[in-house]
Amino acid sequence: MPQFHQQTKHSFMSIRKNSFFLDWRTQPTTYKTYPHFQQCFKIEDYEALEGLNLIGGITFEKEYPEGKYYLRTVPSAGALFPCEVYVQIRGVKSFISGVYHYESKRGILTLLHEIDSDGVEYYFPSKAKQKGFVFLISAIYFRSSWKYRDRSIRYILLDAGHQLGTIYTALCVMGTPSNFAFDFDKLALNETFGFRKDEMFLASVTSAEETPKDTIKPKLTFPYVCGCDHLETNTFIEEAYAQSANYSDEPFTPPNFFQNIPKEQLKQAIINRRSIRAFRGAMTSKESYEFIVQELFEFAKSHNIDIFYTLHRVEGVQEGLYKNGTLIQEGNFQEKSRYLSLEQNLGGMSAVTFYFTSNEVEKYQKVSILSGFIAHIIYIRCELQGVGCSGIGAYYDDEAKAFLNTPNNILYLLAIGN
Ligand SMILES: Cc1cc2nc3c(=O)[nH]c(=O)nc-3n(C[C@H](O)[C@H](O)[C@H](O)COP(=O)(O)O)c2cc1C
Description:
This protein is of the alpha+beta class. It folds into 2 domains: 22-244, NADH Oxidase; 275-417, 3-Layer(aba) Sandwich (NADH Oxidase), CATH 3.40.109.10. The chain has helices spanning 3-6, 12-17, 142-148, 152-174, 186-192, 235-244, 263-272, 286-293, 296-302, 334-340, 345-349, 364-385, 397-404, and strands spanning 40-42, 58-64, 67-72, 83-90, 98-103, 108-114, 128-140, 179-181, 199-214, 306-311, 320-323, 326-330, 352-358, 388-392, 409-417. Helix 3 (142-148) crosses helix 4, helix 4 packs antiparallel against helix 7 (263-272) and helix 8 packs antiparallel against helix 12 (364-385). The site of flavin mononucleotide has 19 residues, from helix 4 and strand 14.
């Protein structure tokens, strides 16, 4: 297993020994803003971009004495929102072909660089020009490490997976296909984008038509803009990222997980999605459960992810421990799942608590990101069914591994229910 996974495990003792005081006034900003003199475009003014704000727009606003609090279409560990999205647009009518930064708060695209024969495709194994959209997901790690320290190397990957999920779902609403790619030269691309180790590329989604022409390297390096108002360097995270960033992998088109869902209904589910804060402990119907999990175990397996789960409250379905849809032990494991999720009630009061696991070493980043992606599909399907859902990034690693009796790393937990 990657050394950094091993070194960022939670245990009953580590949680009690390593608590530290967090001064909320020192939280870094959660938005990256490019200088005002750069040309920017309001997404809602462009027909060709209709639906694009679903990839990360603000969907919830609350006022507190300390200030306003915003939530987005994408969930995030601790609502710290480390991810940023960039999009290259090529050959889309009434739009300048170029590389843009997406700013979720104002719903704008800021033009960073106009493209022609050059483009971000240059950093992918196939350098072929893509006519359409190429989305690039990055993370500004300090937004997360400010609170979660070294363990945030895991959270930024899971958050990137949810970000991938929101882009995928938004593209389903926009009626255009998605192609996922993890194999691109992220370290070189970080340099072109002017990142100074504080921001790092993790994944990409292409929704485009491939042309026979190859691209050349972007003609300039983009200006550096810090995504936080202050920055504390964490060399553990920087090294963990650099060691695991580049790996070979085939791009792929995920299945259509929202087949037969009317677009307007899907759009509303994206907008209304929230993390449930407490389950009532009511039963979830078998139909909802089957709708939520359909095709997901096969998809996960095809990328070397095993999904275990403890099932507690689904009408007409045997309570017990399951692996990839198959019952492996009957019994009531709700107290076990509550305890393993750092004693959070969400883990035990759920209908089902999922454990995403994998033995991948080289593609550790990919399986972590895809765990976040699958979890996101579950979030949206739950919303469509009126079922609650919450990610659980905090759990006792080794005890969860021992309970599941697996050599796999435990990457993420997710609770669903009513
Ligand atoms: C990777 C990840 C880990 C999370 N871990 C927890 C957790 O351990 N406990 C919890 O109550 N919520 C957890 N959440 C839910 C977040 O707190 C929630 O997404 C955030 O507050 C934003 O709210 P929203 O999802 O309603 O938009 C997690 C979310 C993500 C994406």
